[in-house]
Amino acid sequence: MSDEEHHFESTDAGASKTYPQQAGTIRKNGYIVIKQRACKVVEVSTSKTGKHGHAKCHFVAIDIFNGKKLEDIVPSSHNCDVPHVNRTDYQLIDISEDGFVSLLTENGSTKDDLKLPTDDALYTQIENGFNEGKDLVVTVMSAMGEEQICALKDIGPK
Questions:
Q1: Among 14, 43, 44, 149, which residue carries the largest CB count within 10 Å?
Q2: This prediction's pTM
Q3: Based on the domain organization, do 102 and 130 belong to the same domain?
Q4: Cα-flanking dihedrals φ and ψ of residue 122, to 5°?
């Protein structure tokens, strides 16, 4: 053994952004990682075993953050990465001029690093509700280090 000191870089609490799951067990409306993007599965088809012995799963999925359609073909016995997808509700406090929102967290602090959603209908609903002085709660979906507002609830006038 040497007397040298070893320094290790620490990462975030050891929590992985994905977990492995056998391709044959992933179903429609589940989640999958395709090309390093978190996606929701919209279609799964499985081929029969061929001369090389593996049934293949053909996944058609939509990126949960940008709405792009992605496809992948994986042997059904192999593992795929599945993203940890979390949804959190925050109360909307303010919308800045540059499109960033100020959200109230559970512990009473504010979260100011999210922009308004790119989805036009949701964007308009949030902006109109806020301008009318309604109490709004937004749902933020997070996966693989990305976050985006994905839903809105109106909890009545202020």
A1: 149
A2: 0.78
A3: yes
A4: -65, -40
